[in-house]
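Continued from yesterday's entry.
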Amino acid sequence: MTLIVASFGSETGLIEALPRLRGLGAVETYTPKALPGDDGPSVLPLIVLIAGLLGAGAGFGMEVYANTAGYPVDIGGRPEFSWPAFVPIAFEIGVLAAMLAGFFGYLIVNRLPHLYDPVDEAMLMRGASRDRWCVSIRTESPDRAHDLLQTLAAEQVEDVAE
């Protein structure tokens, strides 16, 4: 597997090149701003919703079990199953579960913490957050990739040792 980093002069040059480059292998872009249409739908909101609902349900179930079966206490004639008293705690547990799922889901979806990648060694990556439109390609056929990048008018091309 060979890692190739290329830079383009403009955003439009990179956007036009991406469909053809995707056929070579794994492609990642490094740009000063997000590219239009490059983001797919995120699964993270669904994860947060499911975790929040499961957390609220589990909190409510825990309170029902504790007050009706596990440790029933007669306090001034109050019924054992007093659901209005269970709602605030169930809501808070649901919010806690959603927040924790959101935090850890974010880390997992974005593959963090990712402390090192060989692409960081490329000299072209120095300007990727300022004024460069870079793309990295992990491919099995580097000669074909170099030919295609020349055809697509890449400004600079750099091979990176993995």
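--- second protein ---
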Amino acid sequence: MRPRIGVNCNVKPGLRRQNDGRLLALSPDFVAAISVAGGVPVLLPPFTRAGGVDGSAIDAALDAIDGLVLSGGDDIDPAAYGQPPHPRTVLLDPERDRSDLALAAAALRRGLPVLGVCGGMQLLNVVLGGTLHQHLADLRGGAYPRLHPIHDAQETDETSHAVEVEGRSRVGALLGAGRLDTNSRHHQAVDALGRGVAATARAEDGVIEAIESDDGEFVVGVQWHPEEHVGDARHGALFAGLVRAARNRTERRPDR
């Protein structure tokens, strides 16, 4: 049985004026990574309707999937964690932002296996009550005096810097403990950890690059882009672990 793995889509400006000039978008690397790991990718649009989020549509979508990948994009509205926007914060499409917050929260309430990637890791932390550094460059000379240039969001899928993976963790069990070269690129990062969240990988300068739930559930977030290196066994192990957790959960359900 191949578990069905949902992945949220981005919203981008389109070439036509139809549908308010917006299109759904998702890197095909996510589709490939889920498929290679043995899952069936299910693309999820923003679940909104006039007046707000369509909670019943989110519930129906979660009924139909066995695990969830939260992809990234632009920046979460900092109002979600009680802060005003930084001048360098670039907000997500507001419909996607509201939908993603509701989708992630609903998936966590259900105990669905979840993997957050880049902005998806930040989303997990925010939904669980944590906060974000809105612009890492501001921390130079402060809390993180040796930030890598890649934290200024250079666009490349090549490996850029290493992270140190904590051995006694789910992430460590999947990836192996110690140094891992990653293609991390971002200008925001996890600051205060959310409820029940542990940091399980960091860059050399202390920036948090992986988080996970400390209650034994498969809730994992990484700041880099493993979907772009799924041919590498260590990076691919994140998606394999998600699919395995989704399969195990589904096999325990009496209706499947």
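Helices lie at 28-36, 55-63, 94-110, 119-127, 170-175, 233-251. The chain has one domain: 4-251. Will compare against the first tomorrow.
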